[in-house]
Each structure stands twice: as structure tokens, then as C-alpha cells.
Amino acid sequence: MKSVLYYTGDPKGRIDLLAACGPDALAFEESKKGFEVDCLAIAKELKGRAALFGNIDSVRGLAGGDAELKQAIERQRAAGLENDGRFVFSLGSPVPPSVPVERVRRYIDLARHTVS
User: Fold this and answer.
1) What residues pair up with 25 in beta bridges, in sequence order?
2) How many CB atoms lie within 10 A of CB 47?
3) What is the spatial distance between Cα 30 and Cα 27, in angstroms, rounded to a whole number?
4) Is 98 helix (H, G, I), strand (E, B) or coil?
5) What is the mean pLDDT of each run of 10 residues along the chain (116 residues)?
6) pLDDT for the residue 60
7) What angle do CA 31, 32, 36 make, to 5 degrees?
8) Largest CB tally within 10 Å, which of 3, 5, 15, 93?
9) What sign for the dihedral angle of Cα 110, 113, 115, 116?
10) What is the 3-state secondary structure of 7-18?
11) DSSP symbol at 49
12) How many angstroms separate the CA atoms of 61 and 103, rounded?
């Protein structure tokens, strides 16, 4: 079994503390409460000490067009590479019922086919 520590709120200045708790992975909500949660910045600080879950915005990222979704996935891929490949593409919050299933499938397809 593995442990995932899901942190809500602004993680700035807390990555070392969160990693020191010893989780197998860290997950963060998406940016939308007046602060930015930048996976690439987190990966640079985390330095592979735990796997990192992505935090694509489940509303704007999924409901937007393919170009916006591809850009979000590319930013997440960069974070994964920075974190020694210890990365899981993920959303930063639950998918609301208003998001069509086709968009969720598209996100999964794009994430799976992202080339390093």
C-alpha cells in the first residue's frame, strides 16, 4: 500500500515539511483561491523525495479547448520530469457533473500519450 498526502491551501514554504512526513506521494489542489499552486516549482523543491500528483483544474482545464488542456498537460509533464519521473497526471479537485464524460476521456488520452 502507498500513502498520498493531499494538501489544500498555499504550499509555499511547506514542501520540505510535507516531504519530511514521509508520504509516498504529495497531491495539491489547483490554483484558484487567491494563490498559485505551481507543480513545476513544487517539483524543483521536492527533488523526487515523493511522487507528485498533478493538479490540473478540473473545471477550466477540462471544460476548455484542446489547446488549453494540452498546455496544462505539458506544464504537468515538465513537473514530472523535474521530479525524476515520479509523477501522476491528476486533477486538482473532483470533476463536477457539468463536465462531459468525453472531456474526461480526452484528458486521460492526452495525458497517456504525452511524450517525454
Assistant:
1) 4, 51
2) 14
3) 10
4) coil
5) 96 97 97 91 98 93 89 95 96 92 94 76
6) 84
7) 35
8) 15
9) positive
10) ECCCCCCCHHHH
11) S
12) 9
